[in-house]
Amino acid sequence: MLLEATQVAIERGDRRLLSGVDLGVTGGEIWQLVGANGVGKTSLLRGLAGVATLGVIGDIRHGSTFLYLGHASALKLGLSAVDNLRWHPACDVTAPADQICEALAAVNLAGYEYRPVGALSAGQQRRVALARLLLTDAPLWLLDEPFTALDVAGCEWLEACVRGHVSGGGATVFTSHQPSRFGALQQDLDLGQYAV
Amino acid sequence: MPSDRPLLSLRAAFLRQFLRNGRGIMTRPADVANPLLFFFMVITLFPLGLGPDPTRLATLAPGILWVVALLASLMVSAKLFASDFEDGSLEQLALAPYPLAVTALAEVCAHWLATGFLLALVSPIFGVMLGLPNEGLLTLLVSLLLGTICLTLIGALGSALTVNIRRGGLLLSVLIIPLNVPVLIFGTAAVREAVLGGNPESWLALLGGLALGSLVVVPLAIGAALRVSLDS
Predict the structure, then answer these.
(1) Complex ipTM
(2) According to CATH, what is the number of the domain A3-64+141-194?
(3) A42: number of CA atoms within 13 Å, CB side?
């Protein structure tokens, strides 16, 4: 079990958003958290990652290291893409610079490796953040709205990347408003049923 | 499925965070120049306001220099963690398998080198501008070197506590100005002692003690404060 959450409730301030959420993630699974805006997808994912602990009630256990990618991409706009990844604050990228350049080429950013990230477009910045997926070996990925700002080719690349990760025994939990990108491979966790 | 990725040593994690922030600051030279420019402008205004009498300026100089340095340091360190909070770096840092106290200290170190350290280095020039006697210049430099370590750490603590509060500026000042008072008292006392021809070593030793003490204790508080701020 890579992640096991039992009877998780999420509170924001004095308002309870979700209660009684059960989620067990094992290798080879793709879970999509679905639900209307404001239902608590991001709050739940932050709770699952352990970024927030206040207002997260219930039992959350991790069986492995994981990678969390939030709405904010944790990029310093003045730094180049390579520096941003090489010195990523999550400290999970230990690859040398040439491997980072390869990952950036894979997300179609060849030629932008040493430009300041602030000079890139929103979609390109998203690609820089997503290049981290190729540089980490964490088996569990927690991705918050990973398809945001990506173009069609970018979405397809990310889809293939997640499929590859899962077929290698990894697992992915993500939030998105795009319905069923992964078809039969994915399972939906509809948060509407847990809303209070 | 345990990961076989070798964990970085704590020192390597510190170094990465230091480099990331150091390089980040270098891409924004205006942020480095700002406190120095503020220092320069205020110091040039004082003789205009107080009159050009050199003896009077010289007696006031230690206090003026230290208060302005304190305000300049307060101005910049209050926003130390703001951009990290906004761009999501802070939550990633909190997920890293290293104590936040250590990685946040790396950030504070990079920040101090770009602000407090530079401020202390150029302070003798400003001292001369205010007519501070030559005997006081070296003491001013040393006292500011030690003092800005405390000021930056305390400012960083305030920033960590208020980073998720919109318009936390007033709260921040109320929180950290009282903590800065001992530093200011010891700093000005050292410079005044030197100007009067006495031995400022005891004051400098007190400042050094404060600096070392805060280097040990304040990062722990910063780490805890950052976790609290991320929690809401």
Answers:
(1) 0.88
(2) 3.40.50.300
(3) 12
